[in-house]
Amino acid sequence: MSTYTSGHHKGGRTTDATHHSKADALDDREYELLLEGAQRLDDYYTLEAQFIINVAGRLGLRAGEIRHMEESWIDRRRRMIVIPGDQPCDKGMDGGLCGGCEQSAQQMVAHNDDVEIEEARSEMWSPKTAAAAREVPFDADPRAELAVERYFDRFDQYQTSQTGINRRVEKAAEAADELDPDDIYPHCLRSTAATRFAARGLDVIALQAMFGWADLSTAQRYIRRSGENTARAIRDIQL
Question: N or C: which terminus of the chain carries fewer CB neighbours within 10 A?
Answer without folding.
Answer: C
